[in-house]
């Protein structure tokens, strides 16, 4: 392989400008009209076939190489988060309350960089579909694109995704075969009772506070007694709301609990939903109350196919060396809706290091001081090009 990083270096300034422009104009789930228009404009300018409106605001670009009978798809996400940015950077968000706090601006730009290089050289055999997905942050963008015929309209043999890794040094990549990212679920449990006077007549009331307290404690037993000990799982309460601080003698008639659960198998995800629901109703009934449960499956467990994970590892190793690629990184409990694409097509997902400060510190994703590292734009684009040339090698 030629030195792809040297080839891409002249694009660094342009890619940086694109990334910072996207960063300054963040758009959240299914509102990515400006971003998708920018993506489509750039792709067309480089001679890429463009299809807009796939899954709402999604864009798919197709680059046809030399004659070949295989095709692969590369995916980047475009949406931002509802966060107030506090970086004070010159290109900080211009949209109040919205911010690219997860690096999707960088993911989009890295794939655009690869698109320009691939469209210019076309030194591969077959087709490459570039998927620019909306609504990864809880909006179900991957599933909507699939439902609207993504893989029927753009057939491929494999699909690949990449995310920046905050806290991982620049020049390093991480992935694993098998389950790598968790199924991420969110739940709301509402306990309802009569309420009452906590001082004079508590015996006449049905007490939601006791129901919720026993529920919160019992919920943690699901991990140790219903999920196999060999499987990682997490369940956490994020909020408890009930009553008024100004009325300490009033027993609340309603308490609302929200939280999240993370599991690494379909069976464990099913178990978590079933047991959480059973416990809520049981502890409500024990206190003469009722419970209403809303359990939402945000993402499914992301499972990398072993063969395609190895393919991604080789593409990264050819770029940065074997010692800089961890092909057996531990699973993480973050969620990623690219998992839905991996249920339809074989493929894999990889993390590219976003860098750390000299003292080892870094800003995590989904925080108001996070920023994607422009230093890795050409590295990420180079990885995609290496992967394409490896998967769709042209015979000599």
CATH-assigned homologous superfamily of the largest domain:
Zn peptidases
Number of strands: 16
Per the CATH scheme, the topology name of the largest domain is Aminopeptidase
Tally of separate helices: 12
What is the CATH class designation of the largest domain?
Alpha Beta
The number of domains? 2
Overall form:
elongated
User: Taking all residues together, what is the mean pLDDT?
Assistant: 97
Q: Give Rg in angstroms.
A: 24 Å
Spatial arrangement of strands, main beta sheet: 1-2-4-3-5-16-6-15
CA-CA gap between termini: 13 Å
Q: What is the SS-derived class?
A: alpha/beta
Instruction: Describe the sheet with the most strands.
Output: 8 strands, mixed
> Which residues form runs of ≥5 with pLDDT under 50?
none
Q: What sequence of helices (H) and strands (E) makes up the elements?
A: HHHEEEHEHHEEEEEHHEEEHEEHEHEH
Helix share of residues?
25-40%
**Oligomeric state of shown chains:** single chain
The fraction of residues in strands falls at 25-35%
Which architecture of the largest domain would the CATH scheme give at its second level?
3-Layer(aba) Sandwich
How would you sum up this structure, described in words?
The relative contact order is 0.20. The protein is of the alpha/beta class. It has an eight-stranded mixed sheet, sandwiched between helices. The longest helix has 21 residues. It has two domains: 267 residues, Zn peptidases (Aminopeptidase, 3-Layer(aba) Sandwich), CATH 3.40.630.10; 117 residues, Alpha-Beta Plaits (2-Layer Sandwich). Helices cover 34% and strands 26% of the residues.
């Amino acid at each position: 392989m030629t030195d792809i990083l040297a080839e891409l270096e002249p694009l660094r300034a342009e890619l940086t400008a694109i990334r910072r422009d996207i960063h300054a104009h963040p758009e959240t789930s299914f509102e990515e009209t400006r971003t998708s228009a920018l993506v489509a404009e750039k792709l067309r300018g480089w001679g890429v076939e463009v299809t807009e409106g796939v899954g709402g605001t999604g864009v798919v670009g197709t680059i046809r190489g030399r004659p070949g009978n295989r095709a692969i798809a590369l995916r980047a996400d475009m949406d931002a988060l509802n966060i107030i940015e506090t970086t004070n950077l010159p290109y900080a968000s211009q949209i109040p309350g919205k911010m690219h706090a997860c690096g999707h601006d960088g993911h989009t730009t890295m794939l655009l960089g690869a698109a320009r290089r691939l469209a210019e050289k076309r030194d591969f055999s077959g087709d490459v579909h570039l998927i620019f997905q909306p609504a990864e942050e809880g909006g179900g963008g991957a599933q909507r694109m699939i439902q609207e015929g993504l893989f029927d309209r753009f057939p491929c043999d494999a699909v690949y995704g990449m995310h920046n890794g905050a806290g991982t040094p620049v020049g390093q990549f991480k992935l694993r075969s098998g389950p790598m990212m968790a199924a991420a679920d969110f739940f709301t449990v509402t306990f309802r009772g009569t309420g009452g006077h906590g001082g004079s007549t508590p015996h006449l009331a049905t007490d939601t506070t006791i129901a919720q307290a026993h529920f919160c404690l019992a919920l943690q037993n699901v991990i140790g007694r219903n999920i196999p000990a060999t499987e990682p799982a997490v369940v956490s309460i994020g909020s408890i709301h009930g009553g008024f601080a100004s009325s300490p003698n009033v027993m609340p008639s309603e308490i609302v609990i929200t939280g999240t659960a993370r599991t690494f198998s379909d069976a464990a995800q099913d178990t978590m939903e079933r047991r959480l629901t059973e416990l809520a109703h049981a502890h409500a009934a024990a206190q003469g109350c009722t419970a209403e449960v809303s359990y939402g499956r945000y993402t499914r467990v992301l499972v990398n196919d072993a063969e395609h994970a190895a393919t991604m590892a080789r593409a990264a190793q050819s770029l940065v060396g074997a010692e800089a690629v961890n092909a057996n990184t531990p699973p993480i409990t973050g969620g990623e809706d690219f998992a839905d694409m991996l249920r339809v097509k074989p493929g894999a997902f990889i993390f590219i290091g976003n860098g750390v400060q000299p003292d080892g510190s870094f800003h995590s994703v989904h925080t108001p001081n996070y920023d994607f590292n422009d230093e890795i734009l050409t590295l990420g684009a180079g990885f995609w090009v290496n992967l394409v040339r490896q998967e769709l090698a042209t015979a000599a």
